[in-house]
């Protein structure tokens, strides 16, 4: 009876943000506290170059939530999205909502004593496969002679395979002006060819265009890389131009992936209605949290489109992405960042286990999203302004990074 009474009377008391500088980005960990001693939830609201804006947005949302029952997750999501007049489909507010929403699901799992994936119907798979991100794609590399650069991509690919990965992603497509000649296309071809030769056909290669190309250049890159059997080609042009992405998808056999910069189910509905991609990539720290990610996944399932969440952030984002994957039928693979900072493991404890061979993640049995953050360790890495990532083309005009 005490447990039932405690659950019925539970209230949110405050929401904290803990900022942790991690080289390329500041992780924003969100802690939703309750009036039940020792019961809180963790979320993540990392948004590079907008840290202070997101922290402020969370502070703006807090008055809507304090005093409310944290287990009414959908009700609170609706309040965060719809109240205060402005809908929460912008990137900053969407990220703030995402961090809080994930923390609420963490609380619900802890309240019932089960991992979140069991709240959502139980596991639909035995493991989730991880893929590595090799990086690459610095501006100064693109207009040099390709052989040395291609060799570097091949070296990184071989290293990923030696670490147990059966799939990896790289930014082998250069920054380009709206229209260029063959040089950037040939550069991308040589880099991808070198990686394919280095790892063979049994390893899946993904290429991330980072939405750098114009639609026409995206077409050229997609056709040039088609012979190499990519697992997917990501963001071949701006995500705002869904019809252009759809035309690229129709023009090649290569699966097209996109969605990391989209917020809310309505943006993904437009992608799916246009048959613009074979893989959608909602980012749980931006798209609206686990609540909205699950709705997006259900919509994608109706179109038989695969799901592979964007996940280059901190450990709470990874834990949430994996819980989502254990319970989501269309989920195929998860992005993994493991070498960004050497102390990543010091700030958190995780429930899931990773099998080194194949980089397969098995679910854990810790309740909620299965992670705990050590705020004392986080405090050792306070906020630092991120390095500006500014890109200019050869003529001095502004480009996409």
Approximately what portion of the residues adopt beta-strand conformation? Answer: 15-25%
Question: CATH homologous superfamily of the largest domain - what is it?
Answer: Enolase-like C-terminal domain
CA radius of gyration = 21 Å
Q: How many separate structural domains? A: 2
What is the typical, i.e. mean, pLDDT? 93
* Architecture per CATH nomenclature, i.e. the level-2 architecture of the largest domain: Alpha-Beta Barrel
Task: Label the structural class.
Answer: alpha/beta
Number of strands: 15
CATH topology of the largest domain, by name, is TIM Barrel
**Helix segment tally:** 14
**Globular, elongated, flat, extended or rod-shaped: what is the shape?**
globular
The residue fraction in helices comes out at: 25-40%
Low-confidence stretches at least 5 residues in length (pLDDT < 50)?
A: 1-5, 139-148
CATH secondary-structure class of the largest domain: Alpha Beta
Measured distance between first and last alpha carbons: 57 Å
Describe the SSE topology.
Layout (H helix, E strand, L loop, with lengths): L1 H8 L2 E11 L2 E10 L5 E5 L6 H15 L7 H10 L8 H22 L3 H4 L8 E6 L5 H4 L3 H17 L4 E4 L12 H17 L4 E5 L6 H11 L6 E3 L7 H10 L4 E3 L6 H9 L5 E2 L8 H15 L2 E2 L7 H12 L7 E3 L11 E3 L2 E3 L4 E3 L8 E3 L1 H4 L23
Parallel strand pairs: 4-5, 4-11, 5-6, 6-7, 7-8, 8-9, 9-10
Antiparallel strand pairs: 1-2, 2-3, 4-14, 12-15, 13-14
Helix pairs in contact: 2-4, 3-4, 4-12, 7-8, 8-9, 9-10, 11-12
Short note summarizing the structure:
The protein has 401 residues and is an alpha/beta fold. The chain has 14 helices and 15 strands.
